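Budget justification aside, the reviewers requested a transparent look at the raw inputs and outputs of the sequence design task funded under Objective 1. We therefore reproduce one unedited record. The lines immediately below are the structure tokens for a 312-residue chain.
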């Protein structure tokens, strides 16, 4: 079988996968460490994972992913520092003043980015800041701190590791539209204000047969603002059961997304959100849907895997 990381590297890109740290052994680890040259912890670096009670940290899962990456010559995408979801209860239930909350946020960034200084190439600093209509999501960050939380988060991350590439990341921004326009305008204004922003992540949680036709043009317009871009959480879900026709469509879809990145010189790479259907969040969250990744539940490559290879 072709080796995705070698094909990507020949094009100056990376090909990555999200993983579950506790599964990094046996065939799962062999495929992750040989086919991919970038790794994203699916959950292990989220705030609720690393600081389940205030001031008491658990880095075991995060460390395991970083150590695995170093052993297999992979880069790490840190995910994620400031998000509305998967926050610890002590944080969401506290009644903080704005100043307290801002300090909690920046201290969290300083601690986590600092711990992995020099070991994490890219950070998703702020995740999912927008609503579908392009207004700011009413997260605790936005409602208590206003839009400035984004610049403050980026500045804290830059101070903690000046060499890490700092990204904003969101979903349903893959093609052009109101939400993508909002991200575009945000990046433009951050750049104008001198805020440290290096890249934009496009999650790529897509539906079979619905890769946006504007994806390449959309990636390019962000690149033209002077930032890197990446597809950070690619999966392409289908209504179950699987059929050969659906797998053929999925192959075309994976090929189209990978080709869009390959065609944009500032697109640094693609990360799939789990490489095997046995390790995908889709069946848990989207009723009746699944089979969203390039390998089946028995670690056999699907047509989608060959679609990726054809695009590289
Ligand atoms: C998902 C994980 O894959 C699941 O295991 C977890 O239960 C929920 O979060 N956008 C993101 C990711 O940025 O962090 C999410 O990951 C999927 C959607």
């Amino acid at each position: 079988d072709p080796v995705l990381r070698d094909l990507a590297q020949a094009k100056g890109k990376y090909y990555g996968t999200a993983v579950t740290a506790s599964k990094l052994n046996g065939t799962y680890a062999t495929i992750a460490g040989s086919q991919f040259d970038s790794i994203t912890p699916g959950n292990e670096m989220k705030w609720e994972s690393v600081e389940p009670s205030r001031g008491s940290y658990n880095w075991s899962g995060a460390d395991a992913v970083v150590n695995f990456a170093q052993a297999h010559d992979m880069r790490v995408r840190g995910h994620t520092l400031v998000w509305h979801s998967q926050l610890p209860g002590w944080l969401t239930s506290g009644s903080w003043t704005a100043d307290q909350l801002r300090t909690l946020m920046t201290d969290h960034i300083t601690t986590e980015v600092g711990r992995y200084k020099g070991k994490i190439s890219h950070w998703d600093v702020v995740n999912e800041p927008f609503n579908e209509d392009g207004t700011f999501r009413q997260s605790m960050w936005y409602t208590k701190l206003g839009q400035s939380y984004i610049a403050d988060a980026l500045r804290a991350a830059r101070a903690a590791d000046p060499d890490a590439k700092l990204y904003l990341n969101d979903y349903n921004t893959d093609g052009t539209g109101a939400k993508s326009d909002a991200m575009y305008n945000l990046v433009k204004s951050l750049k104008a204000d001198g805020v440290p922003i290096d890249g934009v992540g496009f999650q790529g949680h897509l539906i079979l047969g619905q890769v946006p036709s504007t994806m390449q043009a959309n990636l390019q317009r962000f690149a033209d603002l002077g930032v890197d871009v990446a597809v950070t959480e690619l999966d392409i879900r289908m209504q179950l059961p699987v059929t050969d026709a659906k797998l053929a469509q999925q192959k075309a879809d994976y090929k189209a997304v990978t080709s869009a990145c390959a065609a944009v010189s500032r697109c640094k790479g693609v990360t799939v959100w789990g490489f095997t259907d046995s390790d995908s969040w889709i069946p848990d969250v989207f009723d009746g849907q699944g089979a969203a990744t390039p390998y089946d539940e028995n670690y056999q490559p699907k047509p989608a895997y060959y679609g990726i290879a054809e695009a590289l």
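The CA atoms of residues 69 and 100 lie 35 Å apart. The mean pLDDT is 98. Computational costs for records of this kind are itemized in the attached budget.
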